[in-house]
Structure formats: C-alpha cells, structure tokens
Amino acid sequence: MRPALPLALLLLAGTAAAAVELLGNPPSPRQVASGRAVAAGAGGQGQQGACFACHGFDGAGQAAAGFPALAGQSAEYLHEQLERYASGARPNPIMQPIAAAMTPDQRRDVSVYYAAQPPQASAGARPQGDPALLQHGGNLSAIGSAERGVQACQNCHGPGGIGLWPNYPRLAGQPADYLAAQLRAWKQGERPGDEPYNFMANIAARLTEDDIRAVSLYFASVRTVPRQAGTGVLP
C-alpha cells in the first residue's frame, strides 16, 4: 500500500464551525477586545511578556524561532494550556510567569481572541528534508506503527494534523522544532500526563529520534490555508 503524504492538504473544517460546536456562543466584542489587549501586554505580564512578541497579533507564530501558531486552535485547548502554565502543571520558564500574571478572565479572553483569528496560509518555503524521512512521518501520521504500539497521529489530530476540537490541537503547519521539542518533552516525562493527554507519554516513549524528526518535519510540511475566523466563548 502506498502511504499518503498530503503535503498540500487543505484545512477542511471551518474554525467558526469548530468553535461553535465547542463553545456554543459567539464571543462578545468586549471579550475579543479584552483578549487583544492581553495579547498586547495588558494582562499583567507587560510588554516584555506580551503574547504578540512571539505569537503575533494574528497568531501566526514564528516558525524560524520555533514559536507555535495559535490562530484557529480551539479556545478550550488554548485556555487549558494557559491554566496549566499558570499552575506549573506544564513547566515552561517563559510561559509560566506570563500565564501566572494574567487573571483567570484574561487567560480566558486571550484564548478566545486567538481562537477567533483565521489561520494564515503557510508562508515561504516549506521545511526541506530527506524524502524518505517525510514519507516515514506521513506513515506515522496515517497508520502509526502496529509493531511498536504507536497509534496513528490522525486518530486524535485529524487527517494531516488539522486538529480535532476541543482537546486535540492542530499540528499542520506548526514549526518542526516546536513539534519535536514537545514530543521529546513527552518522551522524557517533562509534559504532564493527566487526562486527556496521558497516552501521549506512552506514545512518545515508543518513538525513536528518527521517528520524532520524521513526524515533526511531516506536519511542518503540511500546507495550511486561511479559514474563517472562529466564534465562541468559554463559560
């Protein structure tokens, strides 16, 4: 069987539909404005810790620096990660003090703000690598590895890593260095293993370094296209 390698995969599910399904109601203008203000550094973290400095006001991130894109991720996922950073459940020397400086309402609002931003089209040259490595990453995404007990990435993250709301984030188009760092953190026990992510530690433990490089490069190589901005609020 020839493995599928959808390097030009379009993001299929509209952000608006996903956010409505997740959160139920459109965000209020006040909530979006509050979230943008937090992204600009008004959440107690100051300009030095402003979200836009690494992730941009459009949430596109910075691939060269390994900063992930936030635009179009589910608000619930973003909010949960900020709560984990703030409490120290997800250790990170940069994000922990930034998240902790925000109030609970500010963490909610900035999550809704970035969820409402449409993902940007992949810009510039895509990551280059050994075609065999890319193909291996595509195989792991589509079918996993039965002999090593590694389930297919798309079972939780959707075909080509487009994301399955509310809990499973979009991997498509994220920086390869960021994705590889997260898989290594899972593998080394540096990411929390509680529900619904406890299985990631087990999966990552079964991945070789070549597997990690392959699947990270593959997802970074999946083309993304703009989608409609999301709607929805966290309760």
Automatic annotation (TrEMBL):
Signal peptide from the UniProt entry: 1-18
Main location: periplasm
Domain Cytochrome c: start-end pairs: 30-118, 132-223
Pfam families named in the record: Cytochrom_C, Cytochrome_CBB3
Keywords: Electron transport, Heme, Iron, Metal-binding, Periplasm, Signal, Transport
Domain of life, source organism: Bacteria
Transmembrane segments: none
Record's subcellular location: Periplasm
Classification via InterPro entries: Cyt_c-like_dom, Cytochrome_c4-like, Cytochrome_c_Oxidase_Subunit
Name of this protein: C-type cytochrome
Organism: Falsiroseomonas tokyonensis
